[in-house]
Amino acid sequence: MPQYTPPSLPRPDEAGRSHSERVAAHIRECIEAAGGRIGFAEFMHHALYAPGLGYYVAGAAKFGEAGDFITAPEVSGVFGAVLARQCAETIGELGHGAILEIGAGSGKLAADMLEALEALGALPETYRILEVSADLRERQQDLLAERVPHLVDRVVWLTGLPESHRGVIVANEVLDALPVERFVRRGDGVSRQCVAVSNGDFRWDEEPAGDNLTRAVTSIEAHLGRALPDGFTSEVSLASVNWIADVAASLTDGVVLLFDYGVTRREYYAEDRPEGWLRCHFRHHAHNDPLVLAGIQDITAWVDFTAVAESAGAAGLDIAGFSAQAQFLIAGGLDAVMADFGTLSLEQQLELSQQIKTLTLPGEMGENFKCLALRRGDMSAPSAFALADRTHTL
Ligand SMILES: C[S@@+](CC[C@H](N)C(=O)[O-])C[C@H]1O[C@@H](n2cnc3c(N)ncnc32)[C@H](O)[C@@H]1O
Q1: What are the extents of the domains in the chain?
Q2: Pocket residues for ligand 1 (CB within 6 Å)?
């Protein structure tokens, strides 16, 4: 049965429709096997990562103009060039070390960083890429072989976190792709939002939340110093707690740089945000219905950076800085990266200016996107936080 597509969204093509139907059939089977409903985190996990089917593991275009959304490295090589300077700084302080990029997407950030690090004379011993998607790993290998063929032998692909990593760990837009639970405050209780099936389509359902989710919601309320209002619906990323713990366990010395769209806990659970922070992307249309277009749309949730900082603290990492992406780029070396701007053609100057506006303007990626830096050991804070460090807001 064809899945419902909201009229406000582009209609998927025939191949997209039939792929989505296969993904939906798989999720319906899981729902049936679970007795009629599954938690939203499980639904999101299947839609994005079901083996051979999910959005991130099957072959859809995803990134850039031909895909569904655009990330900072896809907007401009300037993002990777600034990041490279920050990595060089940390690895310089350590004496030696490697870069580990988690969830490398198309591979563009890796190519930009390797080029910039080479130009700086600061190539790391190894550039590790942890990629859970075999399809994306193949694309990354192709892109790097095309862009930086002479540096490919420094790149090592991993399918899990290394036992130990000294240097920098970078993850751009990975936290928002981790499955989240959705909850509703119902009087004295907490409900978990689930997904069930009606006439072949997915629909919301709910059940009393288990201990973990209830504990997470009550600890959010304790932190806020108030109860969430009746009916308040939002997300909690239980998966990110383990993810951060695993990343922290892997980092022996150095810095973790996490970029994502997100806010502090006070903003995340503010009363004027009673329906949460889920965001879906399909062919550059953003909307908030994750139950449609199974497996052919991206499903994300904005990040509660206070929660990430708490998980990091519990896992033994210190906060080295927290700022909006614009400030990170400006303090992190944007001027140095732009040093040869005057030598570019007018057309190139216009194009680059437009890219920088997209990365830095508050209405674009400049303010909603943040960088949280974590460190282990006696490391200096990256210079990218010299302009504005909002750690105190977490
Ligand atoms: C929105 S994409 C971002 C890609 C890329 N970093 C960029 O900025 O263009 C999310 C990426 O996170 C990866 N990912 C999701 N869950 C992951 C996990 N648990 N561990 C490692 N990577 C993960 C996906 O495979 C995908 O490459």
Answers
A1: 14-66+178-241+266-301, 72-172+319-374
A2: 56, 63, 71, 73-74, 102-105, 109, 130, 132-133, 136, 172-174, 177-178
Sign of the torsion angle spanned by Cα atoms 323, 325, 327, 331: positive
Instruction: Specify whether domain 14-66+178-241+266-301 bears CATH 3.40.50.12710.
Output: yes
Look up the CATH architecture of domain 72-172+319-374: 3-Layer(aba) Sandwich (3.40)
What is the reported pTM? 0.95
Q: Which tens digits make up the pLDDT trace of 334-353?
A: 999 999 999 999 999 999 99
End-to-end CA distance of the chain: 46
Distance 111 CA to ligand 1 centre (A): 16
Say how many Å lie between the CA of residue 231 and the centre of ligand 1.
32
Cα 248–Cα 144–Cα 374 angle in degrees, nearest 5: 20
